[in-house]
Write a structure and sequence with these properties.
By secondary structure, this protein is of the alpha+beta class. The protein contains twelve helices and 18 strands. It is globular and about 85 Å long. The chain binds S-adenosylmethionine (SAM).
Length: 452
Amino acid sequence: ATVPQLLEPGQRSKPGDLAIVLLARDNYEPLILEQSTGAVDGYAEGATLNTRFGSFPHSTLLDIPWGSQVRASAVDTGSRGRKRRRDDSGDDASTPALEDTEGTATPTSAPAKKAVTASSGFIHILRPSPELWTYSLPHRTQVVYTPDYSYILNRIRARPGTRIIEAGAGSGSFTHASVRAVYNGAPKSDDDRKGKVFSFEFNESRFRKMEEEVESHSLKDFVSIKHRDVYNEGFLIDGKSPMASAVFLDLPAPWKAIRHLSRRRPQDMEQDPNDSSEWVSPLDPRKTAMICTFSPCIEQVIQTVSDLRKSGWVEVDMVEVSNKRLVSQRDRIGSYLPKEKGANPNPADVTEALSKLREVNQKTKEFTRIKANRGEEGQNDQMDVDGSEREPNANNKLDESSTEKVWMQGRLIHRAESELKSHTSYLVFATLPPEWSEEDEAAAYAKWPCGN
Ligand code: SAM
């Protein structure tokens, strides 16, 4: 079986790898790296990533440690053959154009000056992870975000070796997170029991896209994706049980799928009088099964809870994950001077406040001028490797005098930011105990010290 690069990315980038390109703060794009020859005699050759920060032949992105900063190449890839990549926001200013020109060798017709300007930008090549995939994936539906899926995977006890059922697959955000949770190494043979995700999607184009992504992320051995309406057709794979012990349903009507997730054939399932075959459950009969359903409305929750109980699920409870990012920062407007320096906590009059604002403005201008001299113009939304914004000198300070003035740093305040991405939904959890027969009871009793 292929080792999934997403789960074992190694130390350095190589051809065929999924890389996450960090263009600017909160601006990530996925990229499959290709073998390319780079620039020859001023011509860009082979696959090249074109962004508004410059051009990056894939050869410059290969065989480098993950997390590396890469400067744009001093080559002109020209405008021929470029096509605008899909841009969800449609906002040209906030989202840089990201184009992948394949095999187009464009002459360096522009003067050297232009090439130098084009090479002023940089990107970071990040190691892929389910979290970064969630940030950068092409959205086809609402997705489950990291704060929700980390909690869900913990509650449904997804761990290396777990076999998990997921429906619908949607954009594959949960799929990527869950495959990492259940991955327990590449299997040595087909019979080798391994953690696996059994994913189902009813919409054909989403299913096809998921198939492509599973293939290109080398996850085929660890994710089975089926095009199916699970309400009517359930969760069996070629008539056999996937032997799952964990289930996640992100469906508009999860209760319609729950009837397939029972230990025994539910009474409401019509049975062909001529069909004497045994009903097969998709759940492993020897293991406790855990389920989570994800629904935005309380009416959906009520119906789901009712159907869970009818299908034998117990310990039913509901949780809503509410995320808050607490930001502490300096509040420059309400600035103050420390008391020992004769400070006035509230600026006494407009003149004092204005003189402080003028000083701040002057420092900002100075900052911009130094940045421009360093050739970083137009990149002020880019950042350093550690995530901090670029500062004009190595000490991360404007100059010594600016750090002495405490009031310039402003008053320290906290505020809650609501922008942490998460889809506010209700999470319903439940447990289905394993099958327990007279024989199991007798065997268990025999093991007791007082048993016979
Ligand atoms: N959890 C996904 C993620 O993290 O990317 C998003 C799931 S999306 C909100 C819901 C998906 O369920 C849609 O793609 C939809 O096509 C699919 N779906 C709806 N009814 C279905 C059914 N009866 N069987 C299978 N999939 C279904």
